[in-house]
DNA sequence: CGGGCATTTGAAGCTGATCAAAATCAGTGG
DNA sequence: CCACTGATTTTGATCAGCTTCAAATGCCCG
Protein backbone atom coordinates (compact mmCIF):
# COMPACT_ATOMS: atom_id res chain seq x y z
CA UNK A 1 0.00 0.00 0.00
CA UNK A 2 1.44 3.36 -0.99
CA UNK A 3 1.51 6.22 1.51
CA UNK A 4 -1.40 7.98 -0.15
CA UNK A 5 -3.44 4.81 -0.44
CA UNK A 6 -3.16 4.47 3.33
CA UNK A 7 -4.27 8.00 3.87
CA UNK A 8 -7.10 7.63 1.39
CA UNK A 9 -8.20 4.59 3.32
CA UNK A 10 -8.37 6.68 6.43
CA UNK A 11 -10.38 9.42 4.72
CA UNK A 12 -12.79 6.89 3.24
CA UNK A 13 -13.33 5.38 6.64
CA UNK A 14 -15.53 8.37 7.36
CA UNK A 15 -16.23 10.12 4.07
CA UNK A 16 -17.69 8.90 0.79
CA UNK A 17 -15.61 9.91 -2.20
CA UNK A 18 -16.13 9.51 -5.93
CA UNK A 19 -13.53 7.93 -8.19
CA UNK A 20 -12.48 11.33 -9.38
CA UNK A 21 -11.99 12.62 -5.86
CA UNK A 22 -10.02 9.51 -4.98
CA UNK A 23 -7.73 10.08 -7.93
CA UNK A 24 -7.24 13.64 -6.79
CA UNK A 25 -6.04 12.49 -3.39
CA UNK A 26 -3.83 9.76 -4.82
CA UNK A 27 -2.22 12.24 -7.19
CA UNK A 28 -0.93 14.39 -4.33
CA UNK A 29 2.82 14.97 -4.54
CA UNK A 30 5.03 14.21 -1.56
CA UNK A 31 8.59 13.86 -0.35
CA UNK A 32 9.44 10.70 1.49
CA UNK A 33 11.85 11.12 4.39
CA UNK A 34 13.18 8.81 7.12
CA UNK A 35 13.63 10.17 10.59
CA UNK A 36 15.20 8.57 13.62
CA UNK A 37 13.28 8.35 16.86
CA UNK A 38 13.12 11.69 18.68
CA UNK A 39 13.64 13.80 15.58
CA UNK A 40 11.53 16.97 15.57
CA UNK A 41 9.45 17.12 12.41
CA UNK A 42 7.86 20.40 13.42
CA UNK A 43 9.07 22.70 16.16
CA UNK A 44 6.67 24.94 18.07
CA UNK A 45 6.43 28.38 16.52
CA UNK A 46 7.75 27.21 13.18
CA UNK A 47 5.94 28.14 9.98
CA UNK A 48 5.25 24.97 8.04
CA UNK A 49 4.49 24.48 4.36
CA UNK A 50 3.85 20.77 4.23
CA UNK A 51 1.85 18.32 6.30
CA UNK A 52 3.36 15.16 7.75
CA UNK A 53 1.78 11.88 6.71
CA UNK A 54 3.04 8.96 8.78
CA UNK A 55 4.01 6.14 6.45
CA UNK A 56 5.73 3.91 8.94
CA UNK A 57 6.56 4.13 12.61
CA UNK A 58 4.94 6.55 14.98
CA UNK A 59 4.80 10.28 15.50
CA UNK A 60 3.40 12.45 18.24
CA UNK A 61 2.05 15.92 18.67
CA UNK A 62 3.59 17.66 21.64
CA UNK A 63 3.18 20.80 23.68
CA UNK A 64 6.21 22.65 24.89
CA UNK A 65 6.29 24.43 28.22
CA UNK A 66 8.18 27.42 29.48
CA UNK A 67 11.24 25.55 30.65
CA UNK A 68 11.54 23.52 27.46
CA UNK A 69 9.78 20.54 29.02
CA UNK A 70 7.42 18.68 26.71
CA UNK A 71 4.37 16.55 26.76
CA UNK A 72 3.15 14.31 23.98
CA UNK A 73 -0.54 14.98 23.57
CA UNK A 74 -1.49 12.88 20.56
CA UNK A 75 -0.22 9.82 18.83
CA UNK A 76 -0.14 9.13 15.12
CA UNK A 77 0.26 5.80 13.37
CA UNK A 78 0.76 4.82 9.74
CA UNK A 79 -1.90 6.42 7.55
CA UNK A 80 -2.46 9.38 9.86
CA UNK A 81 -1.81 12.89 8.62
CA UNK A 82 -0.32 14.31 11.82
CA UNK A 83 -0.81 17.93 11.20
CA UNK A 84 -3.36 18.29 8.48
CA UNK A 85 -4.60 21.19 10.58
CA UNK A 86 -1.44 23.07 9.65
CA UNK A 87 -3.08 23.68 6.28
CA UNK A 88 -5.62 25.85 8.04
CA UNK A 89 -3.13 27.36 10.48
CA UNK A 90 0.43 27.16 9.18
CA UNK A 91 2.14 28.84 12.12
CA UNK A 92 2.54 25.97 14.54
CA UNK A 93 1.55 26.44 18.14
CA UNK A 94 2.40 22.77 18.58
CA UNK A 95 5.25 20.42 17.70
CA UNK A 96 5.48 17.10 15.88
CA UNK A 97 8.07 14.57 16.87
CA UNK A 98 9.08 11.13 15.60
CA UNK A 99 8.39 8.95 18.63
CA UNK A 100 10.02 5.94 17.04
CA UNK A 101 12.02 5.56 13.85
CA UNK A 102 9.60 6.72 11.21
CA UNK A 103 9.06 7.23 7.53
CA UNK A 104 7.16 10.38 6.77
CA UNK A 105 5.62 11.68 3.57
CA UNK A 106 5.74 15.46 3.44
CA UNK A 107 2.73 16.69 1.51
CA UNK A 108 2.91 20.36 0.43
CA UNK A 109 0.10 22.58 1.70
CA UNK A 110 -0.18 24.05 -1.76
CA UNK A 111 -1.17 20.68 -3.20
CA UNK A 112 -3.56 19.90 -0.34
CA UNK A 113 -5.28 23.23 -0.82
CA UNK A 114 -5.55 22.67 -4.54
CA UNK A 115 -7.21 19.31 -4.24
CA UNK A 116 -9.53 20.69 -1.56
CA UNK A 117 -10.47 23.61 -3.79
CA UNK A 118 -11.10 21.40 -6.78
CA UNK A 119 -13.18 18.86 -4.88
CA UNK A 120 -15.38 20.26 -2.11
CA UNK A 121 -16.04 16.74 -0.84
CA UNK A 122 -12.33 16.33 -0.26
CA UNK A 123 -12.24 19.62 1.62
CA UNK A 124 -15.00 18.29 3.86
CA UNK A 125 -13.16 15.00 4.32
CA UNK A 126 -10.12 17.00 5.46
CA UNK A 127 -12.19 19.00 7.87
CA UNK A 128 -13.70 15.81 9.23
CA UNK A 129 -10.25 14.37 9.65
CA UNK A 130 -9.15 17.22 11.89
CA UNK A 131 -12.40 16.97 13.83
CA UNK A 132 -11.67 13.33 14.57
CA UNK A 133 -8.25 14.34 15.78
CA UNK A 134 -9.87 16.81 18.14
CA UNK A 135 -12.31 14.18 19.37
CA UNK A 136 -9.42 11.99 20.45
CA UNK A 137 -7.79 14.91 22.24
CA UNK A 138 -11.03 15.61 24.04
CA UNK A 139 -11.25 12.01 25.19
CA UNK A 140 -7.70 12.14 26.46
CA UNK A 141 -8.50 15.19 28.52
CA UNK A 142 -11.32 13.22 30.07
CA UNK A 143 -9.17 10.16 30.63
CA UNK A 144 -6.35 12.10 32.24
CA UNK A 145 -8.63 13.95 34.57
CA UNK A 146 -10.66 10.90 35.53
CA UNK A 147 -8.75 7.65 35.42
CA UNK A 148 -5.88 6.57 37.67
CA UNK A 149 -2.59 5.41 36.15
CA UNK A 150 -3.47 1.76 35.57
CA UNK A 151 -6.68 2.59 33.78
CA UNK A 152 -5.04 5.26 31.66
CA UNK A 153 -2.58 2.76 30.29
CA UNK A 154 -5.34 0.26 29.64
CA UNK A 155 -7.32 2.94 27.82
CA UNK A 156 -4.37 3.83 25.64
CA UNK A 157 -3.86 0.19 24.71
CA UNK A 158 -7.52 -0.20 23.80
CA UNK A 159 -7.45 2.92 21.67
CA UNK A 160 -4.38 1.79 19.82
CA UNK A 161 -5.80 -1.63 19.22
CA UNK A 162 -8.90 -0.19 17.61
CA UNK A 163 -6.92 2.31 15.56
CA UNK A 164 -4.50 -0.33 14.33
CA UNK A 165 -7.45 -2.49 13.37
CA UNK A 166 -9.25 0.22 11.50
CA UNK A 167 -6.06 1.14 9.67
CA UNK A 168 -5.54 -2.52 8.75
CA UNK A 169 -2.25 -2.66 10.62
CA UNK A 170 -2.85 -5.22 13.31
CA UNK A 171 -1.22 -8.62 13.26
CA UNK A 172 -3.17 -10.82 15.65
CA UNK A 173 -3.34 -9.55 19.21
CA UNK A 174 0.04 -7.98 18.86
CA UNK A 175 0.46 -4.23 18.91
CA UNK A 176 3.76 -2.86 17.77
CA UNK A 177 4.14 -0.31 20.48
CA UNK A 178 7.61 0.94 19.70
CA UNK A 179 7.52 3.29 22.65
CA UNK A 180 9.67 3.23 25.75
CA UNK A 181 7.93 3.09 29.09
CA UNK A 182 9.33 6.52 29.66
CA UNK A 183 7.49 7.83 26.59
CA UNK A 184 4.25 6.19 27.64
CA UNK A 185 4.56 7.78 31.04
CA UNK A 186 5.25 11.16 29.55
CA UNK A 187 2.10 10.93 27.45
CA UNK A 188 -0.11 9.87 30.31
CA UNK A 189 1.34 11.91 33.12
CA UNK A 190 2.81 8.94 34.98
CA UNK A 191 6.42 8.53 36.06
CA UNK A 192 8.44 5.94 34.16
CA UNK A 193 8.96 3.96 37.33
CA UNK A 194 5.27 3.73 37.96
CA UNK A 195 4.56 2.74 34.37
CA UNK A 196 6.90 -0.17 34.85
CA UNK A 197 5.14 -1.29 37.99
CA UNK A 198 1.79 -1.16 36.27
CA UNK A 199 3.05 -3.07 33.26
CA UNK A 200 4.47 -5.73 35.55
CA UNK A 201 1.15 -5.87 37.28
CA UNK A 202 -0.93 -6.17 34.12
CA UNK A 203 1.44 -8.86 32.97
CA UNK A 204 1.15 -10.81 36.20
CA UNK A 205 -2.61 -10.67 35.88
CA UNK A 206 -2.38 -12.16 32.40
CA UNK A 207 -3.87 -9.13 30.69
CA UNK A 208 -0.87 -8.43 28.49
CA UNK A 209 2.52 -9.88 27.61
CA UNK A 210 5.49 -7.87 26.48
CA UNK A 211 8.65 -8.40 24.53
CA UNK A 212 10.96 -6.80 21.98
CA UNK A 213 9.20 -3.45 21.71
CA UNK A 214 5.76 -4.93 21.24
CA UNK A 215 2.81 -5.63 23.47
CA UNK A 216 0.44 -8.52 23.09
CA UNK A 217 -3.05 -7.99 24.36
CA UNK A 218 -4.15 -11.12 26.12
CA UNK A 219 -7.40 -10.02 27.66
CA UNK A 220 -9.10 -7.26 25.72
CA UNK A 221 -12.31 -7.61 27.65
CA UNK A 222 -10.63 -6.92 30.97
CA UNK A 223 -8.72 -3.95 29.58
CA UNK A 224 -11.84 -2.44 28.08
CA UNK A 225 -13.82 -2.93 31.23
CA UNK A 226 -11.27 -1.53 33.60
CA UNK A 227 -10.71 1.59 31.52
CA UNK A 228 -14.40 2.02 30.62
CA UNK A 229 -13.29 2.06 27.01
CA UNK A 230 -15.96 2.84 24.45
CA UNK A 231 -14.80 3.50 20.90
CA UNK A 232 -17.62 5.91 20.17
CA UNK A 233 -15.26 8.86 20.51
CA UNK A 234 -13.19 7.63 17.57
CA UNK A 235 -16.14 8.57 15.34
CA UNK A 236 -15.77 5.56 13.11
CA UNK A 237 -19.00 5.88 11.18
CA UNK A 238 -19.07 6.81 7.53
CA UNK A 239 -20.91 10.03 6.88
CA UNK A 240 -23.10 11.23 4.06
CA UNK A 241 -21.75 13.61 1.51
CA UNK A 242 -22.71 16.95 2.98
CA UNK B 1 -23.51 43.14 20.11
CA UNK B 2 -25.75 40.54 18.51
CA UNK B 3 -24.93 36.84 18.85
CA UNK B 4 -23.65 36.62 15.29
CA UNK B 5 -21.60 39.79 15.60
CA UNK B 6 -19.82 38.16 18.51
CA UNK B 7 -19.14 35.06 16.54
CA UNK B 8 -18.02 37.05 13.52
CA UNK B 9 -15.60 38.85 15.78
CA UNK B 10 -14.14 35.53 16.79
CA UNK B 11 -13.79 34.38 13.20
CA UNK B 12 -12.17 37.64 12.17
CA UNK B 13 -9.69 37.31 14.98
CA UNK B 14 -7.95 34.75 12.82
CA UNK B 15 -9.36 35.02 9.31
CA UNK B 16 -9.68 37.93 6.92
CA UNK B 17 -13.14 38.25 5.45
CA UNK B 18 -14.60 40.52 2.81
CA UNK B 19 -17.72 42.59 3.41
CA UNK B 20 -19.76 40.14 1.44
CA UNK B 21 -18.52 37.19 3.47
CA UNK B 22 -19.23 39.10 6.67
CA UNK B 23 -22.77 39.74 5.55
CA UNK B 24 -23.13 36.05 4.82
CA UNK B 25 -22.19 35.15 8.37
CA UNK B 26 -24.35 37.84 9.91
CA UNK B 27 -27.32 36.65 7.89
CA UNK B 28 -27.25 33.19 9.46
CA UNK B 29 -30.58 32.23 10.99
CA UNK B 30 -30.74 31.03 14.59
CA UNK B 31 -33.02 30.16 17.45
CA UNK B 32 -32.28 31.79 20.75
CA UNK B 33 -32.83 29.61 23.81
CA UNK B 34 -32.16 30.00 27.53
CA UNK B 35 -30.91 27.04 29.48
CA UNK B 36 -30.40 26.65 33.19
CA UNK B 37 -27.04 25.51 34.52
CA UNK B 38 -26.49 21.78 34.02
CA UNK B 39 -28.86 21.46 31.09
CA UNK B 40 -27.59 19.09 28.40
CA UNK B 41 -27.55 20.87 25.07
CA UNK B 42 -26.19 17.82 23.29
CA UNK B 43 -26.13 14.30 24.63
CA UNK B 44 -23.44 11.83 23.58
CA UNK B 45 -24.58 9.71 20.65
CA UNK B 46 -27.26 12.15 19.63
CA UNK B 47 -27.59 13.25 16.03
CA UNK B 48 -27.55 17.03 15.92
CA UNK B 49 -28.77 19.41 13.25
CA UNK B 50 -27.72 22.74 14.67
CA UNK B 51 -24.59 24.09 16.26
CA UNK B 52 -24.59 25.85 19.63
CA UNK B 53 -23.30 29.39 19.73
CA UNK B 54 -22.83 30.65 23.26
CA UNK B 55 -24.43 34.06 23.59
CA UNK B 56 -24.20 34.43 27.31
CA UNK B 57 -22.99 32.28 30.16
CA UNK B 58 -20.78 29.28 29.72
CA UNK B 59 -20.96 25.88 28.15
CA UNK B 60 -18.69 22.90 28.21
CA UNK B 61 -17.87 19.92 26.07
CA UNK B 62 -17.88 16.71 28.05
CA UNK B 63 -16.94 13.09 27.68
CA UNK B 64 -19.13 10.44 29.17
CA UNK B 65 -17.73 7.25 30.62
CA UNK B 66 -19.09 3.76 31.00
CA UNK B 67 -20.74 4.31 34.35
CA UNK B 68 -22.34 7.59 33.32
CA UNK B 69 -19.59 9.62 34.97
CA UNK B 70 -18.57 12.73 33.06
CA UNK B 71 -15.65 15.01 32.58
CA UNK B 72 -15.77 18.48 31.13
CA UNK B 73 -13.00 18.68 28.55
CA UNK B 74 -13.45 22.11 27.03
CA UNK B 75 -14.95 25.39 28.03
CA UNK B 76 -16.87 27.83 25.88
CA UNK B 77 -17.60 31.47 26.54
CA UNK B 78 -19.77 34.05 24.79
CA UNK B 79 -18.95 34.19 21.10
CA UNK B 80 -17.73 30.59 20.90
CA UNK B 81 -19.47 28.13 18.65
CA UNK B 82 -19.25 25.10 20.92
CA UNK B 83 -19.72 22.39 18.43
CA UNK B 84 -19.06 23.84 15.03
CA UNK B 85 -17.38 20.53 14.38
CA UNK B 86 -20.79 18.89 14.47
CA UNK B 87 -21.32 20.32 10.98
CA UNK B 88 -18.58 17.98 9.76
CA UNK B 89 -19.63 15.08 11.99
CA UNK B 90 -23.27 15.34 13.07
CA UNK B 91 -23.40 12.19 15.16
CA UNK B 92 -22.00 13.36 18.45
CA UNK B 93 -19.36 11.32 20.19
CA UNK B 94 -19.27 14.10 22.76
CA UNK B 95 -21.76 16.07 24.83
CA UNK B 96 -22.40 19.76 25.37
CA UNK B 97 -23.65 21.04 28.68
CA UNK B 98 -24.63 24.43 30.04
CA UNK B 99 -22.13 24.89 32.88
CA UNK B 100 -23.86 27.98 34.13
CA UNK B 101 -27.14 29.59 33.18
CA UNK B 102 -26.68 30.30 29.51
CA UNK B 103 -28.25 31.79 26.44
CA UNK B 104 -27.55 29.79 23.34
CA UNK B 105 -28.14 30.52 19.68
CA UNK B 106 -28.90 27.35 17.78
CA UNK B 107 -27.61 27.74 14.24
CA UNK B 108 -28.87 25.11 11.76
CA UNK B 109 -26.20 23.03 10.04
CA UNK B 110 -28.01 23.57 6.78
CA UNK B 111 -27.41 27.31 6.96
CA UNK B 112 -23.80 26.92 8.05
CA UNK B 113 -23.13 24.59 5.14
CA UNK B 114 -24.79 26.97 2.73
CA UNK B 115 -22.71 29.95 3.76
CA UNK B 116 -19.58 27.79 3.68
CA UNK B 117 -20.43 26.56 0.19
CA UNK B 118 -21.12 30.02 -1.09
CA UNK B 119 -17.98 31.57 0.39
CA UNK B 120 -14.91 29.32 0.44
CA UNK B 121 -13.13 31.79 2.73
CA UNK B 122 -15.87 31.28 5.30
CA UNK B 123 -15.47 27.53 4.97
CA UNK B 124 -11.77 27.96 5.74
CA UNK B 125 -12.55 30.24 8.66
CA UNK B 126 -14.81 27.52 10.04
CA UNK B 127 -12.12 24.92 9.62
CA UNK B 128 -9.66 27.19 11.35
CA UNK B 129 -12.10 27.69 14.19
CA UNK B 130 -12.28 23.95 14.84
CA UNK B 131 -8.50 23.71 14.60
CA UNK B 132 -8.16 26.32 17.33
CA UNK B 133 -10.55 24.33 19.45
CA UNK B 134 -8.34 21.28 18.98
CA UNK B 135 -5.23 23.30 19.86
CA UNK B 136 -6.75 24.17 23.22
CA UNK B 137 -7.63 20.54 23.86
CA UNK B 138 -4.08 19.54 23.04
CA UNK B 139 -2.73 22.06 25.51
CA UNK B 140 -5.04 20.77 28.19
CA UNK B 141 -3.77 17.26 27.65
CA UNK B 142 -0.28 18.62 28.23
CA UNK B 143 -1.32 20.61 31.27
CA UNK B 144 -3.13 17.70 32.90
CA UNK B 145 -0.29 15.34 32.36
CA UNK B 146 2.38 17.77 33.50
CA UNK B 147 1.22 20.30 36.05
CA UNK B 148 0.17 19.68 39.65
CA UNK B 149 -3.19 20.90 40.90
CA UNK B 150 -2.18 24.44 41.86
CA UNK B 151 -0.58 25.12 38.54
CA UNK B 152 -3.49 23.64 36.61
CA UNK B 153 -5.86 26.06 38.22
CA UNK B 154 -3.50 28.96 37.56
CA UNK B 155 -3.23 27.89 33.93
CA UNK B 156 -6.97 27.75 33.53
CA UNK B 157 -7.33 31.24 34.99
CA UNK B 158 -4.68 32.59 32.63
CA UNK B 159 -6.35 30.99 29.63
CA UNK B 160 -9.72 32.39 30.54
CA UNK B 161 -8.32 35.84 31.09
CA UNK B 162 -6.79 35.88 27.63
CA UNK B 163 -9.90 34.46 26.02
CA UNK B 164 -12.17 36.95 27.77
CA UNK B 165 -9.86 39.72 26.63
CA UNK B 166 -9.79 38.62 23.04
CA UNK B 167 -13.54 38.27 23.00
CA UNK B 168 -13.89 41.76 24.48
CA UNK B 169 -15.65 40.44 27.56
CA UNK B 170 -13.35 41.38 30.38
CA UNK B 171 -14.23 44.03 32.91
CA UNK B 172 -11.01 45.04 34.61
CA UNK B 173 -9.18 42.20 36.33
CA UNK B 174 -12.43 40.53 37.06
CA UNK B 175 -13.34 37.23 35.47
CA UNK B 176 -16.91 36.12 35.74
CA UNK B 177 -16.23 32.55 36.54
CA UNK B 178 -19.72 31.32 37.21
CA UNK B 179 -18.45 27.86 38.02
CA UNK B 180 -18.60 26.02 41.33
CA UNK B 181 -15.35 24.76 42.76
CA UNK B 182 -16.73 21.31 42.18
CA UNK B 183 -17.03 22.02 38.45
CA UNK B 184 -13.52 23.40 38.28
CA UNK B 185 -12.22 20.30 39.98
CA UNK B 186 -14.11 18.05 37.64
CA UNK B 187 -12.54 19.79 34.65
CA UNK B 188 -9.03 19.61 35.98
CA UNK B 189 -9.08 16.25 37.67
CA UNK B 190 -8.89 17.62 41.20
CA UNK B 191 -11.26 16.89 44.06
CA UNK B 192 -13.54 19.72 45.09
CA UNK B 193 -12.01 19.76 48.55
CA UNK B 194 -8.57 20.22 47.14
CA UNK B 195 -9.71 22.96 44.79
CA UNK B 196 -10.95 24.85 47.80
CA UNK B 197 -7.63 24.52 49.60
CA UNK B 198 -5.77 25.78 46.55
CA UNK B 199 -8.11 28.71 46.11
CA UNK B 200 -7.67 29.63 49.75
CA UNK B 201 -3.95 29.39 49.28
CA UNK B 202 -3.84 31.55 46.15
CA UNK B 203 -6.01 34.04 47.96
CA UNK B 204 -3.75 34.15 50.99
CA UNK B 205 -0.80 34.77 48.72
CA UNK B 206 -2.61 37.73 47.20
CA UNK B 207 -2.73 36.23 43.70
CA UNK B 208 -6.52 36.26 43.45
CA UNK B 209 -9.56 37.40 45.34
CA UNK B 210 -12.98 35.80 45.15
CA UNK B 211 -16.56 36.74 45.72
CA UNK B 212 -20.10 36.25 44.39
CA UNK B 213 -19.26 33.82 41.61
CA UNK B 214 -16.42 35.85 40.21
CA UNK B 215 -12.68 35.80 40.55
CA UNK B 216 -10.46 38.80 40.48
CA UNK B 217 -6.96 38.25 39.23
CA UNK B 218 -4.61 40.24 41.42
CA UNK B 219 -1.25 39.05 40.24
CA UNK B 220 -1.28 37.91 36.63
CA UNK B 221 2.47 37.75 36.43
CA UNK B 222 2.73 35.26 39.27
CA UNK B 223 -0.06 33.11 37.83
CA UNK B 224 1.52 33.08 34.41
CA UNK B 225 4.90 32.21 35.77
CA UNK B 226 3.81 29.44 38.05
CA UNK B 227 1.75 27.72 35.34
CA UNK B 228 4.30 28.39 32.59
CA UNK B 229 1.48 29.98 30.66
CA UNK B 230 2.26 31.00 27.10
CA UNK B 231 -0.69 32.02 24.95
CA UNK B 232 0.90 30.77 21.75
CA UNK B 233 -1.35 27.72 21.76
CA UNK B 234 -4.42 29.91 21.44
CA UNK B 235 -3.29 30.68 17.89
CA UNK B 236 -4.29 34.31 18.05
CA UNK B 237 -2.64 35.51 14.87
CA UNK B 238 -4.65 36.55 11.86
CA UNK B 239 -3.96 34.42 8.83
CA UNK B 240 -3.80 35.16 5.14
CA UNK B 241 -6.66 34.20 2.88
CA UNK B 242 -5.61 30.75 1.73
C1' DC C 1 32.79 -7.73 24.29
C1' DG C 2 31.63 -3.36 25.89
C1' DG C 3 28.77 0.82 26.05
C1' DG C 4 24.46 2.98 26.35
C1' DC C 5 19.80 2.88 26.91
C1' DA C 6 15.77 0.69 28.94
C1' DT C 7 13.83 -1.91 32.41
C1' DT C 8 13.49 -3.45 36.98
C1' DT C 9 13.46 -3.23 42.05
C1' DG C 10 13.63 -0.93 46.75
C1' DA C 11 12.71 2.70 50.18
C1' DA C 12 11.02 7.15 51.70
C1' DG C 13 8.10 11.00 51.28
C1' DC C 14 4.50 14.12 49.29
C1' DT C 15 0.46 15.35 46.81
C1' DG C 16 -3.95 15.00 46.65
C1' DA C 17 -8.15 11.72 47.61
C1' DT C 18 -11.61 10.46 50.74
C1' DC C 19 -14.67 10.77 54.57
C1' DA C 20 -17.13 13.53 57.78
C1' DA C 21 -19.00 17.56 59.51
C1' DA C 22 -19.49 22.59 60.34
C1' DA C 23 -20.22 27.12 58.46
C1' DT C 24 -21.85 30.07 54.90
C1' DC C 25 -24.79 31.51 51.27
C1' DA C 26 -28.83 32.04 48.02
C1' DG C 27 -33.19 31.45 47.27
C1' DT C 28 -38.19 30.30 48.93
C1' DG C 29 -42.23 30.69 51.18
C1' DG C 30 -44.66 31.96 55.29
C1' DC D 1 -38.46 40.19 57.29
C1' DC D 2 -37.23 35.90 58.99
C1' DA D 3 -37.01 30.93 59.24
C1' DC D 4 -36.12 27.11 56.42
C1' DT D 5 -33.88 24.40 52.67
C1' DG D 6 -30.49 22.82 49.74
C1' DA D 7 -26.22 23.82 47.64
C1' DT D 8 -21.61 25.40 48.12
C1' DT D 9 -17.67 26.41 50.64
C1' DT D 10 -14.75 25.58 54.37
C1' DT D 11 -12.05 22.90 57.77
C1' DG D 12 -9.97 18.69 59.94
C1' DA D 13 -8.00 14.03 59.89
C1' DT D 14 -6.53 9.92 57.71
C1' DC D 15 -4.72 7.32 54.03
C1' DA D 16 -3.44 5.67 49.24
C1' DG D 17 -1.34 6.39 44.89
C1' DC D 18 2.27 7.97 42.88
C1' DT D 19 6.83 10.51 42.73
C1' DT D 20 11.52 10.79 43.57
C1' DC D 21 16.01 9.17 44.29
C1' DA D 22 19.23 5.49 43.87
C1' DA D 23 21.11 1.46 42.22
C1' DA D 24 21.13 -3.09 39.87
C1' DT D 25 20.05 -5.80 36.04
C1' DG D 26 19.04 -6.80 31.30
C1' DC D 27 19.23 -5.97 26.42
C1' DC D 28 20.55 -4.43 21.81
C1' DC D 29 24.02 -2.95 18.63
C1' DG D 30 28.42 -1.58 16.90
Protein architecture, described:
The structure is a homodimer of 242-residue chains. The first copy, chain A, is an alpha+beta fold. Chain A is built from eight helices and ten strands. Chain A has helices at 3-14, 19-26, 109-118, 120-146, 149-166, 181-188, 192-204, 220-226, and strands at 31-35, 40-42, 50-56, 59-64, 70-76, 95-98, 102-108, 174-175, 208-211, 214-217. In chain A, the strands form three sheets. The first copy, chain A, has a four-stranded antiparallel β-sheet. Chain A has a three-stranded antiparallel β-sheet with strand order 1-7-3. In chain A, strands 8-10-9 form a three-stranded antiparallel β-sheet. In chain A, a hairpin with a 2-residue loop joins β9 (208-211) and β10 (214-217). The longest helix of chain A has 27 residues, at 120-146. The two termini of chain A are 28 Å apart. At the A-B interface, β4, β5, α4 and α6 of A face β4, β5, α4 and α6 of B. The first copy, chain A, binds a DNA duplex (30 and 30 nucleotides) through α7.
Amino acid sequence: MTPLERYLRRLEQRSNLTDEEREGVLALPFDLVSRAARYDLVRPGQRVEAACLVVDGMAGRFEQFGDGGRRTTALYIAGDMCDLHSVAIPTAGWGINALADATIALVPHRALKDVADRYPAVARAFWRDTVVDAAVLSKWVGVLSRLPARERIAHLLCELMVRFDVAGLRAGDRIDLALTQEQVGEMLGISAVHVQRIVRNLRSEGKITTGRGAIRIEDVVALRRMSEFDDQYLLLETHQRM
